[in-house]
Specification:
Elements lengths: L8 E2 L2 E2 L4 E9 L4 H14 L3 E8 L7 E9 L14 E4 L19 E5 L4 H8 L4 E5 L1 H8 L5 H13 L4 H16 L1 H16 L2
Parallel strand pairs: 3-6, 6-7, 7-8
Antiparallel strand pairs: 1-2, 3-5, 4-5
Length: 201
């Protein structure tokens, strides 16, 4: 189902917002910036207006960082960091005790967490009473790609939860962008990870 971002749909709930906003929380080197860029490029394919930009702390591998994404059917005038997200994506569950990941998230919005914990355990850790989607993105990445790269798997889950862009457009963008960089075999493995996460419960 194609989503109209004037009335964005998460979990069948209509959001009366013209701009759909996402925050990725991750550690440096986990690929949050790459996931955000793939999402933005896929939205651009659908002729939507987009923003995607990181907010780094200390710029080193393993340091906490955030990446912001906005998608809209209308021009986006603000350039400030996202402060009222519709979805929060957490690529490293160890961040849950160090950041306020649920800030300004309400019960109709969603949090996606890379974790082996179940939904109830994530709820206990965060106190969040909204829609929680745990996924073992690192485990799926190891199984499919052979490397601990959770960003592509968690991107698939985000697409399923939010319907922010079409899965096939993300796949096309990934293939166009990375086949020449990492080779066809690894590209297709990453795409498979996206698709498996998209199809997961």
């Amino acid at each position: 189902m194609e989503t109209d971002f004037l009335y964005g749909i998460i979990l069948g709930m209509k959001l009366d917002k013209k701009i759909f906003e996402i925050i990725f929380h991750a550690r440096g080197g986990q690929g949050a910036k790459t996931a955000a860029e793939l999402l933005a490029q896929a939205a651009l394919k659908e002729e939507k207006f987009i923003q995607a930009f990181p907010d780094f702390g200390p710029e080193r591998t393993g340091a906490p960082m955030k990446t912001f994404v906005r998608v809209s059917n209308e021009p986006i005038k603000t350039h400030e960091p996202v402060v009222d997200p519709d979805v929060v994506v957490i690529l490293d569950e160890t961040l849950l005790g160090t950041i306020d990941a649920t800030k300004n998230l309400d019960e109709n919005e969603a949090m996606i967490v890379n974790t082996t914990s179940n939904r109830e355990m994530v709820k206990q850790k965060t106190g969040f009473v909204g829609n929680i989607y745990p996924i073992d993105a690192t485990g799926l990445s190891m199984e499919v790609i052979g490397e601990p790269r959770p960003n592509t798997a968690i991107l698939g889950k985000l697409l399923k939860v939010s319907e922010i862009v079409k899965l096939e457009n993300v796949v096309d963008v990934f293939r166009e962008k990375y086949t020449g960089k990492i080779g066809a075999e690894k590209t297709e493995k990453n795409i498979l990870a996206i698709e498996k996460a998209y199809d997961s419960l």
